[in-house]
Design goal:
The structure is a homodimer. The first copy, chain A, is an all-alpha fold. Chain A is built from 10 helices and no strands. Chain A is elongated and about 65 Å long. The first copy, chain A, starts with 8 loop residues before the first helix and ends with a helix. The first copy, chain A, binds a DNA duplex through α3.
Chain lengths: ~200, ~200
DNA sequence: CGCCACAACTAAACAATGTTCAATTTATAG
DNA sequence: CTATAAATTGAACATTGTTTAGTTGTGGCG
């Protein structure tokens, strides 16, 4: 097989995802173009379409990478804590801090239309992996509760944290104050857990 | 002044917003094009640009209309209830039901990039109006609490409901079961309020 | 009644986008 | 060394948002 450059298809995929991530982080999803990515990695658009089905496919991989980093960040944030409640708080804080630190990148995860496009399994796994971390804490926290109760609680709290971090992106400068969203998150965790464990 | 048709500029704006809303509701934001809207209302693209600054501006008005309907729906849902807690539940349910009934339309409210674009005041007011409804309930619920506490609680709960309705759009078919998101919302309201009022 | 100024409107043009694909290049197998 | 086939290009296409020069009709004025 005659390959012209030193990059395998997989390497090109990674280069493209990295370049695209950089563009999204710096300029937002709207500025991401096939030609822009191609130029950044020293190839032509055509090559991009050999490595990805289309732009949406590429964006999905960019977002998957974001979710992976979030997973790593969350895991690290809770690593040295024993108390499940403190761990949940630390995980939430890590979530919110990523969203605040790289708003455009985080926004891309949700801008990319989610209705109408069938979400592939490998991508949904990235989301589920996050929820598993939360579920594990809830199980520690309330071993006597049923699987269903844990399931619901984990999703409720996580959706709440998610909603708060979304609001921080949209909201008035007041709410944008860095620690504001963290105040909301604290309120959510504190009060929700109080009710849940009552 | 020589006007050629029977429609004032304001009428054209309304026609365009209505047509755009129909397209978004039926086919999603991605299928919304200037030419499509123009054709639907019997004008040309140029005319659209006499009535709106650009497509983003038009989309903002489409979303504002969505928020207004949500406001009306929420108000109506709580109208006949006296207990603030029940009212909050009814309002949340109305929120979630709108999001489930018209997912594409609701998604458009958040797909439309919110970072990087300055959100005009008239639009932010639509969002604030929703939060005011929630704040009012919290004030009823806990008259002894400070303004700040009310402020935080209203935003926390509302962001939570929002997160849940977003998750419903994205998630696995399991969570998509219509009453699933309502179960999460109930859990949130019940437990958060328990903690908040403890 | 005529015509004119001017707003409303159109239609064509532009640049940029995602996507495809015939043509070309080049590494490697034989 | 050559033939093969994969890798890569670059030009083409349709479609998008947006602009603008030109056209058309209407209401006001003489």
């Amino acid at each position: 097989m005659g390959r012209r450059s030193d990059h395998s298809r997989e390497e090109i995929r990674e280069m493209a995802i990295t370049a695209a991530t950089r563009i999204v982080t710096g300029q937002g999803l709207a500025k991401l173009t096939a030609r822009g990515i191609a130029q950044d990695i020293g190839y032509t658009v055509g090559t991009l379409y050999l490595a990805f089905e289309n732009l949406d496919d590429l964006i999905l991989h960019v977002n998957a990478k974001t979710l992976e980093e979030l997973h790593a960040g969350i895991t690290a944030a809770a690593r040295d804590l024993a108390d499940p409640k403190r761990r949940l708080a630390a995980m939430s804080k890590a979530y919110i801090e990523l969203a605040n630190r790289q708003p455009r990148r985080w926004n891309a995860v949700f801008e990319h239309s989610l209705v109408d496009t069938e979400i592939p399994d490998w991508y949904r796994q990235r989301i589920d992996a996050l929820l598993l971390l939360v579920e594990a804490e809830f199980r520690q926290l309330a071993p006597h509760k049923s699987d269903t109760e844990i399931w619901i609680a984990a999703r409720t709290l996580w959706a709440g944290i998610h909603g708060i971090s979304m609001a921080a992106l949209t909201s008035t400068p007041v709410i944008k104050k860095p620690d504001m969203s963290w105040q909301l998150a604290s309120s959510l965790i504190e009060n929700y857990l109080t009710g849940f464990l009552r």
